[in-house]
Each structure stands twice: as structure tokens, then as C-alpha cells.
From TrEMBL:
It catalyses: [protein]-peptidylproline (omega=180) = [protein]-peptidylproline (omega=0). PANTHER family: 39 KDA FK506-BINDING NUCLEAR PROTEIN, FKBP-TYPE PEPTIDYL-PROLYL CIS-TRANS ISOMERASE FKPA. SUPFAM superfamilies: FKBP-like. The keyword Metal-binding does not apply. Keywords: Isomerase, Rotamase. It comes from the Bacteria. One of its GO terms (molecular function) is peptidyl-prolyl cis-trans isomerase activity. Belongs to the FKBP-type PPIase family. Residues 205-311 form the PPIase FKBP-type domain. This is peptidylprolyl isomerase.
Amino acid sequence: MKKGLVILFAATLGLAACNNYKKGPGGLSYIIHKDAGGAKIKEGDIVKLNFIQKSEKDSVMFNTWDMDQPQVFPVAKKVYAGDMNDVLTLFGEGDSATFKLDLDTMAARSGQPKPPGTKDKYIVFTVKIEKVLAKGANEADSTFQNKARTFFENDYKASIEKKKGAEAGKIKKYIADNNLKTTTTASGLQYVISKPGDAVKPALGDTMMVNYTGKLTTKKSDGKDNIFDTSDEKIAKESGKHNAMAQYGPRPITLGRAIPGFDEGLQLIGKGGKITLIIPSNLAYGEGGMPQGGISPFSPLVFEVELSDIKKPAVAPVAAPGATISPITPAPAK
């Protein structure tokens, strides 16, 4: 965990324990952990921030630090006093804070119902304002939008280059931290076979029944594995990735239709085999990442995989008509 984030969490826990929240309009409660002394955000500004979104019972719903994906958005006109846009005007660039939005007030003032099934009174955010691009009082909208577009495009490019440069170090650290003795293929895939399985390996077009857990090489801010998908229901629940609509247990995956590193790795074991795959981003989601799956650009991935069965095709395989939602499907073509 980054040093600054450790301090932020320590401040959050310490101040929250003292219940030292200030009261604001619309049922708002907030704590400012750090005041950098800058100008406060105002309507029309564009902000870049990291945040953790939690339920009232402290269940993490979203964490941009874990995803390594800060969010950028314009600050709109407030709908009511104490709403999300209004609360941001309490902070400036470099500030960090925790605030609680009253869900009953939000529902009553916005006309949008509370999330189905929730009994919470509040939704809780811990934020760090990374950057504020302020709109001048007399600045034309078109001029400001062009300036913002240029600024954040350059900021994004710099972030991508930083992630690209850090990838090799992430892989090396993961291998060292987990004391792995890997084998590296010509493509750059690294793997450890813990159980080779049967002699017959899957071939192109075969349907493999696979148990797997996919995670990032970096830990979450709470020190736990940063899991983005799994076929194991217990792991899904423990990691906060459980989906009531998902089918857990071995999942069918046709060889040739997954990301390249996964396809290559599965051909190294037979039925009953187990393998750990450390997949560099060029064999996964590359420079685009897969934001909807929590995978940022140039992210190396780790899969713990068990091949429970191999099913031969009844007819010659055909190309898939489109991508599915599984994070092991191929990255979109550029």
C-alpha cells in the first residue's frame, strides 16, 4: 500500500472512531483528514480523484486505489444542498476527506429510489482530490473544454507510460513475494505446474472445463489478494465479487477464444492438471486494460487454474460471434 494511503486510512479510522464528523446540509456528515490549503472546488471545475465507496456497514463497494483507476468528471450544478456535487465544494486539490451521504435525503430530493434491498441510512466515501482544473469566471465553455481535453489526455498518457514502465517490476515482485520458481515460455508467459494431469492436452477448439481464480499481481489496500474474477463461489463471496446470477464451479472455455496467455497456459496441462499462470499484459489486455473488469492498462495478471475436463468438439470449431463478460475473453481488437 502506498505510504500516503496508509496515512489516509489511519486518519480515517482514528477520526471515525472518535465520531468527529462535522454536520452539513441534507444530512451530510464529513471529516477532512488533510486540508492542503488550495482553492475550493466550484461548479464547472473538472476534478480527478481517488475514492473508496463503502456501505454503512463498512462493506467496500468500489475502490479506485485497488483498481489503479482514478476517476475524472466535471462538477455539475447541485440538485440539492448536501448532494455529491455540493459536498465536493468543501474540498480543494490535495485534500483528503471522508463523508457520509444520507440515502433517505438523496432519494427524497433526487427522485431516485434507494438501492434495492439496502437498509443503510448512509453511503460512505473516503476521497483524495488528486487534481482540480478550475474554470475561469469569464472563460468560455468551449475554451475550457479544449483546455481540459488537452490536459487530461496528457495526464492519461503520462499515467499509461508510468504503468507500462512498472509492469516488469510488478511481475518480478509477485514472483519473489510468493517464492515461485517459474518457467518462462518464448512469448513471455511464466508458469508453475503443481499437477500436470493426464498426458492428453487440450487442442484448438476443445472445450475445457476450468476452475480458476484471476487476480492482479498487486494486493488490495487491505492487504488481501486483488481478485477480479473466480469460478469458486467461496472465494467470490470472500473477495466481494459474488454474483447471484453467476454459475459457479467448472466453467466451459473453448481453447482459442480466451486471452492469449490463458490459451497458451492451458495447453501445458492435461485433465486434472493444476497450473499458476503469470500473464504479462501483452498476452492479456495490453494498453487498453479492461476497466469494467477492474483491470487497468498494462496490468499483468495471475490465474490459479485447474483443468477438470476436456471435451472434444462434435463439429469443426467456428469463430465466436462476440465477446462474453468473462475476464478471460480476448481483449477488443484495436
